[in-house]
Amino acid sequence: xxxxxxxxxxxxxxxxxxxxxxxxxxDKGGRRIALRPEGTASVVRAWxxxxxxxxxxxxxxAPSFRYERPQAGRYRQHHQLGVEALGxxxxxxxxxxxxxxxxxxxDVGLTRxxxxxxxxxxxxxxxxxxxxxxxxxxxxxxxxxxxxxxxIEENPLRVLDCKRxxxxxxxxxxxxxxxxxxxxxxxxxxxxxxxxxxxxxxxxLEPRLVRGLDYYTRTxxxxxxxxxxxxxxxxxxxxxxxxxxxxxxGPATSGIGFGIGIxxxxxxxxxxxxxxxxxxxxxxxxxxxxxxxxxxxxxxxxQAGLRTDRAFDGRSMKAQFKLADRSGARFAVVVGPDxxxxxxxxxxSLTSNDKAEEEVKLSEVVDHVKGRLALR
Length: 376
Hints:
Elements lengths: L1 E3 H8 L3 H4 L4 E3 L5 E4 L4 H11 L5 E10 L11 E10 L4 H18 L5 E6 L6 H14 L6 H4 L7 H4 L4 H7 L11 H16 L5 E2 L11 E8 L9 E7 L3 H4 L7 E7 H11 L11 E5 L5 H10 L4 E3 L6 H11 L3 E5 L1 H6 L1 E6 L7 E5 L3 H10 L2
Parallel strand pairs: 6-7, 11-12, 11-13
Antiparallel strand pairs: 1-3, 2-3, 4-5, 5-10, 6-8, 8-9, 9-10, 13-14, 14-15
Helix pairs in contact: 4-9
């Protein structure tokens, strides 16, 4: 959950994630630490520290923290499922990692998922592209949003990531990185596209896809859920980060990974009706005016797997039946002084016109209720 703030400052000092959205502070020992805004940099830092054998593959589920305006499925504390693979620059590994995320969405039942794909080149070809992009943006500076007018010189890629209408309109005709790729990066990107085709994974080229951090090289990708009718429809993404280990003080090591926002993915599942939440109604409501039977009965019914509730605070039978009706329970198990003395309970349907009661031995209540529930 905590990480040395330098881990993120080294790899994203010019990004909004580090500048604006990262919680950082000084602890009681005088150390500057951050609440982890994402998982990749921390995993690579851990690999450098412990130097596991390559190739190194890891997955994790962890809370992440962003000081930003909460969005649909993205809260200041949200949860990421991440995968990282270090030690190979083979484009087939890119395909395998993308395919793993694609298969996860398929296996949870999502059918409407878009894959956006781009390449950001490497240290050989990206400088030439950045110069062309910077020149283009400077020529259109007056049309950009106020924030990015001032950031063109520092980091023009961030303008491509801006979702404000003015910047989107300007960058629609901006130079594309894929047109500036060197031979090695072009061959890598071609193989990634071929591999995705071999696996039957459809994708769309998106030249403005740069992701939110600056450590990405070559392949970048994002998954979107069109079922989410909002601008915040990204449900995961990632890319290759071949220079990240070196930025963090380790040896030159290739890597690629992805992160999936669990809350956002669950919203997409809801939008598609993948696994609707079960009804909140309980199966059985215990109505007890003796003050001694409900505790044991509720425990026995719950241990038998029945959703069971009861009233507290010595309420009257009439008040307890009101709560039972409000709970949506299908049956009430009623125990009064007379029933307790006779060792029985009365089982009454709450969901049909038939309000007839059945008398059942207290020792047989669980089996009786389970039998009646099975008939419906």
